[in-house]
Amino acid sequence: MIPIVDRAHTESISPIWRMPFRPFFWGAALWSMIALLVWQLQLSGWQLPALRGGVVWHSHEMLFGFAAAVVVGFLATAMQTWTGIPSPKGPQLMSLVGLWLLARLGYLFAVVPVWIPVCTEVAFFLLAGFLLGARVLRTRQWRNLFVLPAMLAFAGLSACHWLLPGAQSRVALLALLLVTAIILVIGGRVIPFFTARRFQMPPREKLPFAEWGTHIAAILLLLSVALGLPRTLWAALALVLGVLQLVRILRWHPTRIWAEPMVWSLHLSYWLVVLGCFLAALAWSGIAPSWHSPALHAFAVGGIGGLILSMASRVSLGHTGRVLKAPRLMPLAFAALACSALVRVFWASAPTGFLVAIVTWIVGYALFLLYYTPVLFRPRPDGHPG
């Protein structure tokens, strides 16, 4: 479908508010750096009484403040391509971003009663679900109907994370697995396509058992964690999920990718999701319980953080009519995120490990902001709306 866009109306809007990826990619990247700086100061023993802080705040902001914001920005942008209906822009987009930003500030400052950012963040996800779901239902794009339950799940989990103190760890795990599941869906669509297109290779036919098996295993894992079923079941499902991802990624021409940073960064991040699956299986089975936290950070830092950086870099260029070529130091940014993940997984037992993981993350996203702030805040160079 070709979206019907009122060009004159679009050009009357400031470029940053013309497409959802613009403010959400920029804002989420900046917020992740701020949130990690605050977290590092607290880990170093600094007393910050004006700020809420703590491990619950840290996990909440990286999952709901950073990752979920990028998910909303990406899906709201992709919805225009998927449905042919223009993405939210102008006042609609400002409302979404405003709710997201108010929630971030409300959670950050301890003087704000926690129910205020909880309500604000729930409203953010519900509005996103309405805007995205309405487009899917209107065009009967049932393949993309997952966006509606995903937004509803984010809304419920974000509230429960603060309002149910006894269940905060499980809620955070559910949110992490939800974002990971979305990455498996989106990554399974775009990584083989981008790889084949970049190197002019025919894409390999998808294996139904790997594709459907991924969706089913991810849903079953989410349900088993939500229902508090035995951890051995979690382990079995994580193992199945890891094997299925291994089958998928080995079919995506992994030996041909190293000449293109925009491609190898996607593959490298996906490999870290595979690593997370196998480490989680070891931890939850009881074989190596100490691998629980490293497994979660393989998902969070390597899979989610790395894939977001790579996808945001590519989408920002593609949707603003620019050449799909990584800026000069962006390969360093992609490598920095992979380094952050590996350090957090294998060296987190030492305080220095935490510092190195945070610094390398900040380096990666600082480079993104350096190169992509002009891209996201300026009109398309080809004069087209968007």
From TrEMBL:
The keyword Membrane applies. It comes from the Bacteria. The keyword Membrane applies. Keywords: Membrane, Transmembrane, Transmembrane helix. The chain crosses the membrane at residues 24-42, 62-85, 122-138, 145-164, 170-195, 207-227, 233-250, 262-284, 296-317, 329-347, 353-372. It holds the Pfam family NnrS. This is NnrS family protein.
